[in-house]
Amino acid sequence: MRGVRHHETQIKVRFNEIDAYRVAWHGHYVAWMEVGRSALAEQFGLDVESLAAAGFLGPVVTLELKYLQPALLGEILTVRTSLARGEAATLEFRCTVIDSDGKARARGKTVHVLTDLDGVLQYQLPQVIGERVERMLVWQEGP
Question: What's the pTM?
Answer without folding.
Answer: 0.93
